[in-house]
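Researcher: I'm preparing a figure for a lab meeting and need a structural model of a single chain. I don't have an experimental structure, so a prediction will have to do for now. The sequence is pasted below. Please return the structure as tokens so I can convert it later.
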Amino acid sequence: MARTSTYLNFPRETEAAFLFYRSVFGGDFLPPGVQRFRDMPASPDQPPLSDEDGNLVLHVELAITGGHVLMGTDAPPSMGFTVVQGSNVSLNVEPDSLAEGERLFAALSSGGTVEMPLTEMFWGATFGSLIDPFGIRWMINVPKR
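Model: Understood. Here is the structure written out token by token.
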């Protein structure tokens, strides 16, 4: 089933932020729970992670009011990220088909900036990110069904 969620990026405090959000909204983290960078497959073009960075949050999800889902990740400077408060939020769209994901990606990125083209990812989805012509960040994540 298609869904839309909000994706939050933090420099090194995703776990603290999501523990706070869980205390506010209740519930528990959606399966598979808190995923860590150390659990990500190694990439030959990336240097090995430090133990500190390996323990950072790769991905976490928490359902809040109205079925909306908050998602989050750490984006530390040591991994080449620059988190700027106010631009650390993306709308994440998960369409029902790859064709719809490709359509949305092309339409939203027209006149904007592609940050990452649609690519098959290790988590079992086709993923891409972009900034639309109005400066809004979007992620298109099409799970294999």
